[in-house]
Amino acid sequence: MVEITDAEIRNDYFRVVMYAKLAEHFANRPLAPGAGIEFGTSNCVIRGMCPGTTWEERNYPPCDITEMGYWGECDIAVADQVLEHVREPWKVFYCAGKSVRQAFIVTVPFLIKIHGCPGDYWRMTPECIRMMAEDAGFTDIHIDSWGNPEATFWLNKYWYTDAIMKHVPETEWRAALIANDPGTPIMIWAVLRR
To answer: In the chain, what are the domains?
Structure first.
């Protein structure tokens, strides 16, 4: 398990392992600086893992991530917690395949409650992401996940990190961060490279 600070845990319990593992991935296999586009701009954490990259934001849904006109050419693209809200996510992978020169970074939730923004349409498995990535022409595909039954229960009962911290003993929520059951993922992420 990579080191995670208390502040990171308290900021976003359900994404903290994902972000830590992505940071470790990029420390071992850094991306070259270039032009980046982030769709959704939920919290911009992944941007900090790509030093030297100049970022543009495309807020979804005003900027339709399934339309080529919003992409242009870029070295790196990020869709962090966006694809579950897109009616036709396979179009996103098609656009990424045509536009991205270096890497497309995707994160999606899996075992969480329905949340509209404007709608909530999909839960994607790692196999689904791999299929769409391969169809889009990505050949270097790294997919990972984190979750377990306890953390899934807490997420769906309490929904917010601070509520979990109030109601679940610290020893339990810390132990759940270390535990990973690939059959019950809360978060799935992928780094898709050329």
So the answer is: 6-193 (3.40.50.150)
